[in-house]
Design brief:
The chain is an alpha/beta fold and 277 residues long. The chain is 42% helix and 13% strand. The chain has a six-stranded mixed sheet, with helices on both faces. The radius of gyration is 28 Å and the shape is elongated.
């Protein structure tokens, strides 16, 4: 009888242990499946070519780079430093496009670069990592987005000189082509890298000091007017010794009035300009 009682207790203990193991496994599986479906519910499908959400980007940032003159090596270093920070601050699923200013705006209607930040996986929580391949996400970010952006920027800052500098015309191109009319989660951001010295047959900052009142009355204003629709504007203002007589406070104040008062840019920015010298 003693042996039978011991055997029963042992069997009961083993059954209990088995039930506990079963329950723990079930809880783990249910938790894992729950996490998996939670991650899947938040999954955003991206296009293959631009890595943008199929339903559209959450924001738009456009680089407008003046390629009508040459930058010094130290200026290139400064420009890259600022643009790299803007890239790092670019929200996930926001679009980044690059346009260039050359002597023929009609040739620059399409961006030389247009992709979305797909995310590098750094925002994935510990639980989400169970259902996501963080290394694969980081590799995609570096190979398909960051490296292509770096190569494009290197090419855009190569030495180049052209006869005209149609800055106003290209601001309009970017406003129309890069920025949607509908509101997005993060809005629009225009980043201009230029000495901001407009030089075209219709209007030039080299012929006379720019004046906002006379500019408004000029037919050229009607030609280049655009609505930036509250976009944030950042100007990496490239100062050159050869054009210093034109790049004074009056010149910067003129552009500030154009953006804030005429082109409907975001007025919350205290200073549009960062000097690149």
């Amino acid at each position: 009888m003693a042996r039978s009682s011991y055997a029963k207790r042992r069997k009961k203990s083993e059954d209990t242990r088995g039930y506990i193991i079963f329950v723990l496994v079930a809880v783990f599986l249910i938790t894992f499946i729950g996490i998996y479906f939670f991650v899947q519910s938040r999954y955003v499908y991206l296009t293959e070519d631009t890595l943008c959400p199929v339903e559209g980007p959450d924001g738009h940032t456009a680089f407008l780079i003046d390629r009508t003159d040459t930058y010094s090596k130290i200026q290139i270093s400064q420009i890259k430093k600022h643009l790299e920070q803007i890239q790092l601050d670019l929200p996930k699923y926001s679009e980044l496009s690059i346009y260039d200013i050359n002597d023929n705006p009609d040739d620059s209607l399409n961006p030389v670069f247009k992709m979305c930040n797909p995310g590098d996986g750094s925002d994935i929580g510990n639980w989400e990592q169970l259902a996501s391949n963080q290394d694969q996400i980081k590799t995609r970010y570096e190979d398909a987005f960051a490296s292509k952006l770096e190569k494009t920027m290197d090419n855009m800052l190569l030495p180049n000189i052209e006869d005209t500098s149609p800055i106003f015309q290209m601001i309009k191109v970017v406003s129309v082509k890069a920025f949607p009319m509908k509101k997005t989660k993060y809005g629009n951001h225009l980043v201009i890298i230029s000495d901001m010295l407009q030089n075209s047959d219709s209007y030039s900052h080299y012929s006379s000091k720019p004046n906002i009142k006379s500019f408004e009355k000029n037919d050229f204003y009607n030609e280049v007017y655009t609505d930036l629709n509250k976009a944030k504007v950042t100007v990496l203002y490239v100062w050159r010794k050869s054009t210093a007589q034109h790049q004074d406070n009056n010149h910067k104040n003129f552009w500030a009035s154009v953006f804030a008062d005429l082109f409907n840019a975001n007025k919350k920015t205290k200073d549009f300009f960062t000097i690149i010298n």
